[in-house]
Amino acid sequence: MAGTIWIPGAERITPSAPGGNITSNAPPRVVWHTTEADPGTSSVWSAMIRVLKNKSAEPQVLWDPLTDRLGQFMPLNVGGRALRNDGSTMTNRVGQVCIQIEVIGRAAKPFTGYWKPGKNFRAFMAAVRSWGIKEVWPAGPPPRFIASPPHNVPESPRSRTIWLNRGGHYGHSHIPGNDHGDPGGISTSALFAAGGTTPKELFTVGQYENLMQQIKNEGAATRQEVRRQAIWSLRYGVQTEDERARADKAFDDAIEAGKTLAEAIAAVASVMRPIDADLERRARKNG
Ligand SMILES: [Zn+2]
């Protein structure tokens, strides 16, 4: 699985230590934080870097919502350090990627209410999408946060089952074993709208087969390239983790059994056909 590792345009920041090795197979995800400081100046930018490094609590990404300044402490495919462990679970390393972003702002004053997202924010969101992270909030939108006494409204359930099994976007306030309430009640629709577009159209089996054939015809069809394309297509064309896993497995099994690429693609297509019919049925139902 390969997505963007260093976000184009992000400033490199030296972390206090390298990020943690990721071995998790759980679906990829993002965790949103706020640093609890007011954004917009270069002095707060330097101060936040200092604070995060002193606490050894660096995320992969730091972002100022007023200036659109974007920094990166470490590659996106290693574990950050902004979450506390949940018992023996190394929370920072759950997910094929677990991308953490510290937004300079305050949980009690949602940053989507006053921000000025620009091209660096869009580059961040594009990098997130490159890992197949869906624009969903498995634990619900981040709850509101009130400063005094500090707590989320409503209180956040912090489900271990959801965190360990579902991909998408989370707030620090959703994470088991943690007690911070950030990033507060940000607008999830504004967040995704400002982040640029995600392909909304679903791939049909026919389009999928054409794409695979095209890649093969171009002659550069190494197994890895076809696989990468297959995964990409499946991410956008198939809606659930289960559906993706079924199609992915069909491809792997065929290759491991010594089948040709064409046969492997046919195997994926045969799995996708019932999915495709189901997607059509669902689309019709949704009007
Ligand atoms: Zn946090």
Question: How do the helices and strands line up, and which of them pair or pack?
Answer:
Layout lengths: L10 E2 L16 E6 L7 H13 L6 E3 L6 E3 L25 E6 L15 H12 L13 E3 L4 E3 L6 H6 L2 E4 L16 H7 L10 H13 L5 H15 L3 H16 L4 H25 L2
Parallel strand pairs: 1-4, 2-5, 2-8, 3-5
Antiparallel strand pairs: 3-4, 6-7
Bound molecules: zinc ion.
Protein name: N-acetylmuramoyl-L-alanine amidase domain-containing protein
Descriptive account of the structure:
It comes from Kribbella yunnanensis. This protein is of the alpha/beta class and 287 residues long. It has 2 domains: 17-194, Peptidoglycan recognition protein-like (Lysozyme-like, 3-Layer(aba) Sandwich), CATH 3.40.80; 205-285, no CATH class. It has helices at 42-54, 119-130, 160-165, 188-194, 205-217, 223-237, 241-256, 261-285; strands at 11-12, 29-34, 61-63, 70-72, 98-103, 144-146, 151-153, 168-171. A hairpin with a 4-residue loop joins strand 6 and strand 7 (151-153). It is globular. Zinc ion (ZN) is lined by residues 33, 82, 172, 180, 182.
